[in-house]
Design a protein that fits this description.
GH-type_carb-bd; alpha+beta; disordered N terminus; eight-stranded antiparallel sheet; 13 helices; hydrolase; GH97_C; Glycoside hydrolase family 97 protein; signal
């Protein structure tokens, strides 16, 4: 009897707990999956330090038995992948994709053998996992009520966060303990033009944390396709986060038809902050592109008729004094307001400047009819994307741009009327092709139409992808603003070359950005993909335009952004005349590369400082950018990334000794020195200051007489 009883107990334990273990290729990360009493759980540790404690998995469904419990493990598969691939554009010429994988089949015996799969990949820099829904008789269509994925934290971490919101990611960052989020959420939820804050304590992803025992932890998602974006509920008392999907107009969280998958849930972890910035885990979890021809996808350095709209009173997007317009109106009969920026002569001046200084393109906003009452009316037929204002001559400017060897960059502000944009999309893109445009900046300011949908919901996620894929049919590159935050899809859809999706430079003219803001962005927003941050503001004191605020950086920090914030699309955002006042500093913007063979994060701490070096694609040129927060510091730059045994010319752009972001932002120095792989530079940075360095090959005469560093 004792033997029989013991056998029954052992059988019960075997059924109640089914565990699988996996490690990273370098053995530093240890992952465990188990099913306890029918509920799937996982946990993760790094160098024997807990990262994610035991956390449950599953989905709650609408009008359907949920995928939360009653599971047994009916199959497991493991494999190892170690390969390399070359991005079309990127921070590295070649990316290594190396992971150990576990695929678990979970069957619900009580639901007529309904089953799902969980796929886990453990890389040296973290974990990615997703839900997979195979086609089957008992699971074909279903609606998600909520995804119940948990992230049980191992401590009360320091966290850099924005409040959860279905419609905007343009909040400022708050730095606090996880336990402090509920008490700070109301203050952190500042007024934004279109917002839908989550009522319970929550944060957006990418969520960047630092533990008291020195681990850097980043939670986000990869390959967001046909699924709503994920926010994170915060249980501050139990230090637990959980998925919070963006709902649709009727409150549902996702409509799924098998065979399909969820996005990957990603956890990047290291004991070095620099390793977070160099992680390619999110990119590796996205699918390779299926585009056969990618020759038309190229980096773009541009200027624009843009900043003048933000500095008080200089220019306007709208053409006339009318306040109630329709797309069928004859705008030539309206009285001009006298401040319209997108006029033919102004654009020609910008094209001249771009051609003279080697820029690829000129963005022009406000060229098309409809800007008089585009915002705040929740108007569906707001823009047609093909009809210019009377003072904007499309054909004349097309010919002029072509004669200068410069492209015009299209602007499609949708005012978040996605239905209107989709109806007109093919006609708008054909108009671009017919008139020499090969890149478009899209915008989604305001509340979404279809009304009730959200910027981060499944409907809009599919819309953004539809725009990118349709643009590819016309060989057009897309730069989206106010869209859902990126999840590495620029690998799969490489013509979606950049996004804004965060608080960018335009907010410097609307109250200013905190000095620490850009030391946080690379650890948060940029984890998912390149940002069109629009740097390069040299006239940082905006009171000269009659505004009462300033850009909270030194001039040199603006230069450093071209390196610290990766993007193959970079704007010199200031007025052209301001660059002519500082031609030596402007030279760095003209020189700096957009595409890279390699990247080296030399020093970093989220919220404090970042110093990054990059090697230009296919050239023996290197560029370095270093930035700091509101505190002065000394950057230490080792040139050990240079090839050994050779000297190079380094041009150092540094804050002046008396520089400060609030009193003397334009104080800087430029000097040339001789450097090699053994050189080390210690350079002081002003408060909210920076350093920028270009390193190039030099002949004997160029190197002669230079001081060796």
């Amino acid at each position: 009897m004792q033997k029989i009883f013991l056998s029954v107990v052992l059988l019960f334990l075997t059924l109640a707990t089914q565990a699988q273990n996996l490690t990273s290729p370098d053995k530093n990360l240890a992952f465990k999956f188990e099913v306890q009493n029918g509920i799937p759980y996982y946990q993760l540790s790094y160098k024997n330090k807990p990262v994610i404690k035991t956390s449950r998995l599953g989905l709650e469904l609408v009008n359907n038995p949920s995928l939360l419990d009653g599971f047994t493990v009916t199959n497991t598969e493991q494999k190892t992948v170690n390969e390399t691939w070359d991005p079309i554009m990127g921070e590295q010429k070649t990316i290594r994709n190396n992971y150990n994988e576990l695929l678990v089949t979970l069957t619900q015996k009580g639901q007529k053998d309904r089953f799902i799969k969980l796929r886990f990949r453990v890389f040296n820099d973290g974990l990615g996992f997703r839900y997979e829904f195979p086609k089957q008789k008992e699971l074909n269509y279903f609606i998600i009520k909520e995804e119940r994925t948990e992230f049980a934290l191992a401590g009360d971490h320091k966290i850099f966060w924005m409040p959860g919101d279905y419609d905007t990611n343009e909040y400022t960052y708050t730095t606090s303990k996880v336990s402090e989020i509920p008490s700070l959420q109301e203050k952190a939820t500042i007024r934004i033009s279109a917002q839908t804050p989550i009522k319970n304590p929550s944060v957006q992803t990418p969520s960047m944390m630092k533990s008291t025992d020195g681990l850097y932890i980043n939670i986000h998602e990869a390959a967001l396709i046909n699924y709503p974006a994920m926010h994170l509920n915060v249980d501050a008392q139990n230090l637990k986060m959980s998925a919070h999907l963006t709902p649709d107009a009727v409150g549902n969280k996702g409509y799924i038809q098998t065979e399909s998958t969820s996005p990957w849930r990603t956890i990047v972890v290291s004991d070095k902050a620099a390793n977070i910035l160099t992680s390619k885990l999110i990119l590796n979890l996205n699918e390779p592109t299926k585009y056969q021809d990618v020759s038309w996808i190229k980096p773009v350095k541009y200027i624009g008729v843009w900043w003048e709209y933000f500095i008080s009173g200089k220019s306007s997007w709208g053409y006339s004094t009318e306040t109630n317009t329709k797309l069928t109106d004859d705008f030539s009969k309206y009285k001009p307001n006298g401040r319209h920026g997108a006029n033919t002569e102004n654009v020609k001046r910008h094209l001249d400047f771009a051609a003279e200084h080697g820029f690829d393109a000129v963005l022009v906003e406000g060229w098309n009819i409809g800007w008089e009452d585009w915002f705040g009316n929740w108007k569906e037929e707001v823009f047609d994307f093909v009809t210019p204002y009377p003072d904007f001559n499309v054909k004349e400017l097309q010919a002029y741009a072509a004669s200068k060897g410069v492209r015009l960059m299209m602007h499609h502000e949708t005012s978040s009327s996605a239905t209107n944009y989709e109806r007109r999309l093919d006609k708008a893109f054909q108009f671009m092709v017919d008139n020499g445009y090969n890149a478009v900046k899209t915008g989604y300011v305001g509340s979404i139409i279809p009304r009730g949908e959200h910027h981060d919901g499944q409907w809009m996620v599919n819309h953004y992808l539809h725009v990118a894929k349709t643009a590819a049919d016309y060989k057009i590159m897309v730069n989206s603003h106010e869209a859902v935050r990126p999840t590495g899809l620029h690998r799969t859809f490489p013509n979606w070359i950049a996004q804004e999706s965060a608080r960018g430079t335009e907010f410097e003219a609307m109250g200013g950005l905190a000095p620490e803001h850009t030391t946080i962005l690379p650890f948060t927003r940029l984890m998912g993909g390149p940002m069109d941050f629009t740097p390069g503001i040299f006239q940082t004191d905006l009171t000269v335009y009659g505004q009462g605020n300033r850009v909270n950086t030194t001039l040199v920090k603006q230069l450093a952004y071209y390196v610290t914030m990766y993007s193959p699309l970079q704007m010199a955002a200031d007025l052209p005349e301001n660059y002519l006042k500082f031609p030596d500093a402007f030279q760095f913007i003209k020189d700096v590369a957009l595409d890279w063979d390699d990247t080296y994060v030399l020093e970093a701490e989220p919220g404090d400082y970042i110093t990054t070096a990059r090697k230009a694609k296919g050239k023996n040129e290197w560029y370095i950018g270093g930035i700091t927060d509101e505190n002065k510091r000394t950057a230490t730059i080792s040139f050990s990334f240079l090839p050994k045994g050779k000297d190079y010319v380094a041009t150092i752009y540094a804050d002046g000794a008396d520089a400060s972001h609030d009193k003397k932002p334009q104080s800087y120095t430029v000097r040339k020195v001789k450097v090699n792989s053994k050189s080390i530079l210690k350079q002081g940075l002003a408060a909210s200051g920076g350093i920028a360095v270009s390193v190039k090959e030099g002949n004997a005469s160029e190197l002669k007489g230079l001081k060796k560093l």
